[in-house]
Structure prediction request, 2010 residues.
Amino acid sequence: MEFAKGLTEEEMNEYSLKYRYWSGIPTFLRAPHRPNMEDTEIGLIGFPYSGGNPIERMQHHGPRAVRNRSCAYQRAHRFLQINPFDTMKISDLGDVPLPNILNPDRSAEDAEKYFRKVHEKGIIPITVGGDHSITTPILRAIAGKNSKQKGPIGMIHFDAHADSWGPTAGTANHAGAAFFIGAEEGLIDPKRTIQIGFHGSVATLEQEQWSQSMYTVTTMADIEEKGIDWLAKEVHRVIGDGPTYLSFDLDVLDLAYAPGVADPEVNGMTTREVFSLLNKLRGLDIVGADIACFCPPLDNEAQITALLCSELMLHFVAHIADYRKTRQPLAAAAR
Amino acid sequence: MEFAKGLTEEEMNEYSLKYRYWSGIPTFLRAPHRPNMEDTEIGLIGFPYSGGNPIERMQHHGPRAVRNRSCAYQRAHRFLQINPFDTMKISDLGDVPLPNILNPDRSAEDAEKYFRKVHEKGIIPITVGGDHSITTPILRAIAGKNSKQKGPIGMIHFDAHADSWGPTAGTANHAGAAFFIGAEEGLIDPKRTIQIGFHGSVATLEQEQWSQSMYTVTTMADIEEKGIDWLAKEVHRVIGDGPTYLSFDLDVLDLAYAPGVADPEVNGMTTREVFSLLNKLRGLDIVGADIACFCPPLDNEAQITALLCSELMLHFVAHIADYRKTRQPLAAAAR
Amino acid sequence: MEFAKGLTEEEMNEYSLKYRYWSGIPTFLRAPHRPNMEDTEIGLIGFPYSGGNPIERMQHHGPRAVRNRSCAYQRAHRFLQINPFDTMKISDLGDVPLPNILNPDRSAEDAEKYFRKVHEKGIIPITVGGDHSITTPILRAIAGKNSKQKGPIGMIHFDAHADSWGPTAGTANHAGAAFFIGAEEGLIDPKRTIQIGFHGSVATLEQEQWSQSMYTVTTMADIEEKGIDWLAKEVHRVIGDGPTYLSFDLDVLDLAYAPGVADPEVNGMTTREVFSLLNKLRGLDIVGADIACFCPPLDNEAQITALLCSELMLHFVAHIADYRKTRQPLAAAAR
Amino acid sequence: MEFAKGLTEEEMNEYSLKYRYWSGIPTFLRAPHRPNMEDTEIGLIGFPYSGGNPIERMQHHGPRAVRNRSCAYQRAHRFLQINPFDTMKISDLGDVPLPNILNPDRSAEDAEKYFRKVHEKGIIPITVGGDHSITTPILRAIAGKNSKQKGPIGMIHFDAHADSWGPTAGTANHAGAAFFIGAEEGLIDPKRTIQIGFHGSVATLEQEQWSQSMYTVTTMADIEEKGIDWLAKEVHRVIGDGPTYLSFDLDVLDLAYAPGVADPEVNGMTTREVFSLLNKLRGLDIVGADIACFCPPLDNEAQITALLCSELMLHFVAHIADYRKTRQPLAAAAR
Amino acid sequence: MEFAKGLTEEEMNEYSLKYRYWSGIPTFLRAPHRPNMEDTEIGLIGFPYSGGNPIERMQHHGPRAVRNRSCAYQRAHRFLQINPFDTMKISDLGDVPLPNILNPDRSAEDAEKYFRKVHEKGIIPITVGGDHSITTPILRAIAGKNSKQKGPIGMIHFDAHADSWGPTAGTANHAGAAFFIGAEEGLIDPKRTIQIGFHGSVATLEQEQWSQSMYTVTTMADIEEKGIDWLAKEVHRVIGDGPTYLSFDLDVLDLAYAPGVADPEVNGMTTREVFSLLNKLRGLDIVGADIACFCPPLDNEAQITALLCSELMLHFVAHIADYRKTRQPLAAAAR
Amino acid sequence: MEFAKGLTEEEMNEYSLKYRYWSGIPTFLRAPHRPNMEDTEIGLIGFPYSGGNPIERMQHHGPRAVRNRSCAYQRAHRFLQINPFDTMKISDLGDVPLPNILNPDRSAEDAEKYFRKVHEKGIIPITVGGDHSITTPILRAIAGKNSKQKGPIGMIHFDAHADSWGPTAGTANHAGAAFFIGAEEGLIDPKRTIQIGFHGSVATLEQEQWSQSMYTVTTMADIEEKGIDWLAKEVHRVIGDGPTYLSFDLDVLDLAYAPGVADPEVNGMTTREVFSLLNKLRGLDIVGADIACFCPPLDNEAQITALLCSELMLHFVAHIADYRKTRQPLAAAAR
Prediction:
């Protein structure tokens, strides 16, 4: 019954050995490395790319930094009371191959091809970026007419910014375009899309009008006024039951909690608000998720942003496992 | 109507070019550099000085660091729904010249002379320090009998400390003296002065008695107990309608939100509390403001304190523009 | 009456000289260095040890970093309105001598011997670690049958983790064992023990069961739901009147507030919550306290974790002085 | 006669004011900012670009960092005994505008257009990068058939690597291509081209064969064996009298002397070797120069790489001024 | 014939993809990860251990940091004109398992057991530490009576210190003992042992006497006076033809070249001296090598010490391949 | 006879305990702290002052940083074969009290008064700054007509700059004035003064003329051309036999070896050149020495500049002990 006494010394040593974040070959959450995508239900994927952001260019260091830090995780989820690694096959699939990394349009195609392969194998991708342009090829691969979803999917988008702009800086595949392209190309369903956490000063007063006209938008001002419970209900109301993607731009958080981000803004959410919200979103059918805009060279010595990414990744995995267990086993679902 | 579609490609590129914080010659909020003070209603001024603080000596790096980071700003104000750069002439006037920088008393005179020139031209100064001794020469130039204000002005002072001490460490012009000198020399009106946010441990139990006896004082304990709405009302009650100066010592904030400060104390305000308060202060007649005690070498890799200074500067500028537009155009006012 | 005017220039200079954190030989809170333990009621002690933690190994830098930063303290306590240095004899006793530092079992014995000497002299130890294994030898020296307490004492344990495990990684004297050993060896009274602030993901769903079965446990989820007032009452209810030890693992705090810690977890307490709670704990009979798991190389440039340790140390000292003054003078008490 | 006594106090203060690297609006070597290119013989130009390097992506921070640090320079050249700012018109022209920064091919065109304008005005460009792809558009603008040079020019190329590769990673305009394109497009004269300082391990044994077959190549092994005097003679022998470009990749230096570089290799030149060589190159007709591959986020706290860039820039400017003064005044020369 | 033109675009892209040090799962020199030791002639091994050094405790971060940085290597050796990865089977075997990491004596046994397995499979171990206590269990496994070597082996020891002390700080298996134990236990042959590079101030004038009496010792003073050619001859003279181990403590280097080391001393070797020496050591029969005392948290932002370790590792591998190719193929040799 | 075996376990443990740089209360070279100056022949003194330098302001952190790092020293001197702590009474006297730290002229007086007391007690001061203005009050106290020296003394001045300027920036007591004041006030003998190591670019061609006309000056160019042996002879020739002061500005070193300095210049001396020179200066009668311009916030993570200061301090102490032992015991000499 007691943990402290119930384990053999060997088990305790094994345990101790496992959770040293600095030892061994690092994979996401110490999941097995399966670059050939075999034997996998949830695929943890690195997308080391910073070619889509004209302002900040260090997001390609993201996946490595998260792998290094998340080695200490692979734990059970305190709130959901579930160990997702017990109930689902979870692998680190490695990094998206980007042979044309200096060319944003060819890189978007290369990535789309890769995620199409992931999607065809029925794997749910949890992707660590990379700048926010990573969401575009993922959506093109796993949503829309030609995907298994057979049409647009729901979208929960955490961000300080709307990211719903047309082409700029020499390409349509830039870091602020995914939520413009998503609707334009029929990948996400505007009625089932909610953008969460806009804040900070704006370039023009019209900056977010397109988003406001297309999607359900909630700003930090809304959240401060109405609270996390309201926000959770709003998400459930907008998203409902269908397949849904979760795109998490770390700049939705206040810089005190996530210093290592591109395009930072003052006055964001606290980690307790974010995780409290996530815990209230139980029951959604998540078919993919990404964590974008982590810039390791801007993180602090304690690597608190890398740690946050690890925690987010664990939450996404645990929520998917929880849903699949209780609602809709993977075998019977998206496939 | 839509931002994403309504702009030409050229405009989008121009936009993208403009907000790269690391490109070009840096000025505060990318305002035009006008060292000769021409064509200016609000002057953004650097005061790179650390000769007034016996404890911490790196505040002279402040203006450069804020210029470097604030290049990404020059945006519209989300809450006030105003783009101050559209309605007022805002310039970066450069740095206060300090030829006698090693001599605090002569430096105070040099700076006073400079700000007198700014004041005579009818320019509202927004100054980035520098240690908190910078407030003394500014007040001597823009307040008191010989100024355009013809007498003492109101003061909103954010700080963890009272800064109301007499001469110490070899000079009267030190970093903890401005709010002693302000009343002593008839520059600020004690009845229209409010000090906000005292916290941390104290050297002696009597440390803040002088302030308590002279001004309206609110500590963090008051704020935690009564809230930001109460505080906003308290400020309006004390300050009323007259010309008012806003002096913001960054150590009023908790270190999690503003690590790069001199003389830090644990348990300060959050950024959300500060900006929520500022947004509630609409309608004040701000005739000058400063941001003091930024120590860039103590900031973190993400430069969150520099970013906060940029946001504060934008708020001050936007509030002045909002007031001048709706209440009292500059032409008809202080001049 | 007024501080600013009431002090002579000489006193003001003396004051200024005293609070430069970077000058002179650094001791905890600038207390006198008394390695021979003479003339001391409260002993501030460094325990530079990281040999008990298989995951993180930089805690031995803790005491030096706290000494360096805490030089600027030695101040009065704002809430309690007391200057503990006026009413009690407080010394920096130096660091625990650890000649066998590479050997955890011999080091635990060496440390126990040292603290037994401290205890025999009637000195209340406030110890700065060091990893959390430091608590074990302290308890063995100052609690239990052979101590002046003549039996187990009460325990207030702040931590993200339960730290109630058996032997691991080659020794029983590791960083996660103190709250297992405490009960096993009759050093702490399970009925008078409260663990505060568990959070983060867990290795196994059973990880904290032993603690739950033995002690009163409050998680972050409890605290968020019921608040600090409730928590303070809960502590008073559990602890009551007897002699009590306070063990503070810095990882109970959110990383935004205490980045420089070993084994960090996301979603902890804010500093305002912690100090608000401490202020509500007036009236407890603290017979010792420690601050564990500070890793200076992980702290940020502003050293906010070192500053936090200084503030905690001041709070502990002030609370003890407050209690001794009003309730139970040291002479009449534990001796 | 004496400096210390011969200056008035005002002049000394002016001097002191001038060389504080942290004050005022920063330009290269404190040269006047002339974005319109007027009144300029030597143009100091920032090229904040990192879109050409698939491996390292932080070189776009280079120009800002060099401007910030080089403010303390603008001095006389000790060896040449010349103050170039007295004899030539030197300006900071600002940064190359890069509206299509995410697209390497369009960016190369944008930059070429900009440098063509510089070249047409008869300005000698000294450019601070940016990754090493910056050299390609500069050469296309100032060398070859359509330039004022009416043909290929000489090239002195300092680098650990050959940088003579064909298209890769999705573009021909990448950071390792300039010295392949230079010959292919008739911009540099292979007979008058010398590559200096190859070292470090190599990807394949054939990696540098193309360079070896086209240009004069000297490796670190050659330099160690034969010395700097030999190398200087070798440069003079290869380059002779014609117009010559100097391209300086910082990775030619040992990492101890230039830590903040992309694609670092162990075992490079010392700064004393580099500047000794430069001093021996008097008499060359330099028509342009660049400093490539500075990555400020990798520089150390003392910014020694930024300082080195400032010193290099001063050397280039002084050598051009020295040549123009004694040999071939600008008016009579390239125009 | 030409590299730039001779490769297909696909090959160039493959090349580009391969040498991005920040992408993919990191292994030493991108060697295949073979934790089961199959198909391996040279095994690259991490030994993440800092439990043997009472002074500095961050060496356990070494292997991870070297893996992360060395991903950009796996190149050909410029001097030896050999690509060792073409001629030998080289694997990353992962990290030494250390379940009893807090116990130095049990850890030494655990490691010895591991290296015995490596040795039995005929694999030549190249180990990255870890503090210098790592050499002891390696020698116990691969040298001495019970090893395939059937007796003591030769030793080339680079170090600022003699590391020839008896038990201290609670264990015989500490970081300064390997070269005392080596001779005491008959693992290394004193006549075939050379210690290279002693420098820095000393604790007592007698500190190095034991070494002087046992081994051939060369100090930095010797090296400065007589040069690298002399030193190379001295090594060949002492070592001769037999099986030899190379133990490289990074503190033999000057801190300018290797800042991230434990127990640093001023005035060491330059990297050019070290690699020049290594290149002159061709023809030695290396049966194992280690790199000790790398402390990543002390390395600079550019990670020049990690890069140096990568270069050293490549040199060791290349020299072994060179020797095996030309002198004594592995199959016919140690097995 | 053997160190490794000759010590008892207790002695080895004592040894291990002693040289952990991070434990205990830090003093210079672990010398006893004697703020009352009793029982002392050589006084190690901190002078935490940065009020004399208008360009860089972080030198006041110097003494603390050197104390923290030098705890690991207190060793024997390898070249001189002497343990100065065995033959002389060496104390850490603490820091110069600077109650008027914001006022440079009063601070110079305060410091002079302090050093006069040191001088009167016959203590040889070894001072760690602080900016280079610290040399002025030291010379005023220990040299000139009113000192025990009864007149000007010899001066060996290591520096990149001449530091021989008149008043500037509001005071005569600035960081560049000591070697102007020294001659003006009859404190140093121009004929017995040598300045060593000028390098870097210069503000005006006349910058060093005053020094050239007064003193013996050797630039880096001289040193590179003629070597360290020549330089040592030159020092002996200029200085001869009389009492001599040694003032060491760290910027004489190349930044690779001493990054943490104010006013850095490229192309300085290596540490091996500096210590080789110092070892050749045996036989000088050093009556005081200082180490100036250390800026800890600019040092790297490995603190190599702090370590260098420790090594310099040890050298100074050892040379004085060597001279006093062999030539002129302190009792019979300066007193």
In short: The radius of gyration of chain D is 19 Å. Strands of chain D lie at 42-46, 90-95, 124-128, 153-158, 188-198, 216-219, 243-249, 285-292.
